[in-house]
Every structure is written in C-alpha cells, then in structure tokens.
Amino acid sequence: MIFCEEADTEETVTCLHMTFYHPCQDDKMMFRCLNFCEREQVRANEIATFGRDSNICRYNLMDSRVSRIQFSLQFYRKLDTSEFCFEIKNMSKKTKLRVDHTELGYLNKVDLPWKCIICFGDYQILTETQEGQSMDYYETYFRLAQMPLLQERCLSSPQPVPECGIFTSLSLPQDKSPKEIDENES
C-alpha cells in the first residue's frame, strides 16, 4: 500500500494529431518524408516548421509549389493556466494560409483551435489536439487521408440530392416533377 502512495504519477503528453490530404498525393508523393502512424516526440521549446526546405524544416513536403517554410507551430502554455496550446504562423510570402475560416497572410499568427482544418493551395490538414500535462515535450501523430477533408470541395454538382440519395434522371419530365403538398393532404 505504501508503494502505491509514493509512486510517481504518470504524466500525460499533449499530442497533435494531423491528417494530411492532397489530390495528387498518389502521383507526386509529396508526403513521402513524413512518418505516418508513429508518435514522434518534439521538445516543447522547439518550433515545428513545415515546408519544402529540408535544411530548415522539421517536416518536409516534397512539392516545388510549397514555400521553403510554409508554416510553423509553436507549443506554449496559456498565461495563468495549466492549459497547453499551439500557435500557428504563416511563413509563406506567396501563399495565404487558412485555419478554418481565418485567413493568415505572411507572418500572421493565431491560436490553433483544438480541432480545425488548415488549408493552403490544394493541401488540407486536419489537426486535433489531445491534451496533456507535460511541459518538456509534446508528440505529433500523422495520418494520410485518401479522401478530401473538406466536404464542400467534394460536391461536384450544386443540384440537391433526394432523400433516397438516388438520382434516376437529371432532368425530370414536367408531369413527374416533385410537387409540394401539405402533410394533411393525401
């Protein structure tokens, strides 16, 4: 009993889960330098940079259209709280970075919401933060998406989808077109 009382409590670690998508990932392999499905420790005082320059960036995207440093993530603790967060900064002079509905120009930064989608060019990155208490380091965990992360980009037609989810014809004859009726009518 005394052993359990004196044992150190295991400290949990903040983990940033990131799911990457690009429509040409199968052909161009722009994510080939990222370690998928493995947790990677990052020191708390290290700024995590994403871009194409392997000499500067910790995480490389193999695409000539990506800036040398596209964006950076900084781990920090909010003032007067025990809550840990990430701050994202756009490091690209050419490309705006969108974090959910917020557009960031060069050197603009914002707190990363606990769950959001980061977009630049054709890149889509879903981020989800799993809270922890460690002040010394955090972890990253990368996944690869096969489908677009933004549903609005998936819609190919502005036509409404019927409740049954099946289109029998794109143009309905006049006599078979849907009609609005009151629920009390038969």
UniProtKB/TrEMBL annotation:
Span of domain FHA: 49-121
InterPro entries, alphabetized: FHA_dom, SMAD_FHA_dom_sf, TIFA
Keywords: Cytoplasm, Immunity, Innate immunity
Chief subcellular location: cytoplasm
Keyword rRNA-binding listed: no
Cell location: Cytoplasm
Keyword Cytoplasm appears in the UniProt entry: yes
Transmembrane segments annotated in the record for this chain: none
A cellular-component GO term for this protein: cytoplasm
Xref: Pfam families: FHA
Secretion signal, residue range per the UniProt entry: none
GO biological process terms held by the UniProt record: innate immune response; positive regulation of canonical NF-kappaB signal transduction
Family according to the record: Belongs to the TIFA family.
Descriptive protein name: TRAF-interacting protein with FHA domain-containing protein A
Source organism of this protein record: Nothocercus julius
Lineage: Eukaryota, Metazoa, Chordata, Craniata, Vertebrata
Gene field: Tifa
